[in-house]
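General statements about sequence and structure are easier to judge against a single worked case. When preparing material for the folding task, we compiled for one chain both its residues and its backbone structure tokens. The amino acid sequence and the backbone structure tokens for this protein are reproduced below:
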Amino acid sequence: MGSAGLSRVATLTAAMALALWGVAAQAADMGWNGKAEAPRYREQVFPPWQHGANNPAVDKGLEFTVPEVNNLPDFHGSIDNPQLTIFVGGNYFFAMAPLVAAFEKEYPALKGKIYYETLPPGILIKQMQQGGTVTIGNMTWTVKPDVYAAGLKKVESLIQEGLLQGPAVPYVTNDLTIMIPKGNPAHIESLKDLGKPGVRLSMPNPAWEGVARQIKMSLTKAGGPALAHTVYDSKVKNGETILTHIHHRQTPLFLMQGLADAGVTWKSEAIFQEQAGHPISNIPIPAKDNTTAIYAAAVVKGAAHPKWAEAWVNFLKSPTALQIFERYGFKPYAGAKAKG
């Protein structure tokens, strides 16, 4: 090859190297800048927020929880031969610890033998359809529920499908609110403000969260179909609406990290966040625009522990349980105008 050919090869090689360097530089700029960095977050911002209080296991052995890295906030208790397994939509994960403690007080034989999951209702169904097997990171385990709890309509539909056995037992209701960071930096005043350009939102994913249906109903009441379309379509496409990957537990996390300005959640969740001391507040939604949900539970068809399953379902509507729910703004189900 002559000198001219070698020169062309050298030029091409240099150009390729420069291009690859540019790609690497661009990738670094988009991410972690090519070097390991010490965590800068405040540990208390990341779940689990109750510092182990939601774990009903008696013998916890080595406790090794690293927020954001090794953290399983929606799985509670021991999978070593539980005598009652509960699958409950994550709408009241914060109430489960006192509920389980009160239930164990009534039934001491179950102390330390209750396992429960608080994933979104749709994801819990997917786990049930996989025989109760779930994989998180490098760990796979199987646990089959005795009780399933979610919105009343969802529970009734699953009874019709044969996954649950009736009756569906309703026990409390809940209303929506607009969750915001403390101080309300985006100056949110109503549901209509969520449609404004530049307002960043964290919203439950309709693919597996029933609450998205209620939220769309409320958005439509407040601003017509256009508002619902803006929040759940236009803003999703332009990146101003983040759809949660797990459930609305993510919304306060995004708000505290400054990744979102507002998000619609159940009122009970905002109350819990304030009680936990997090910099979270909420904007009430007027009754005319709000949507109420009914929570219900039923025994899973073929449950391994039907006696305890029935006891738990009945316990949820007891005065003891209702008093616990009321701490977080839930109201006892009265069978009136609520929509499941």
Q: What stands out?
A: The chain has two domains: 43-173+294-332, 174-284. The domain at 174-284 is CATH 3.40.190.10 (D-Maltodextrin-Binding Protein; domain 2). The mean pLDDT is 84.
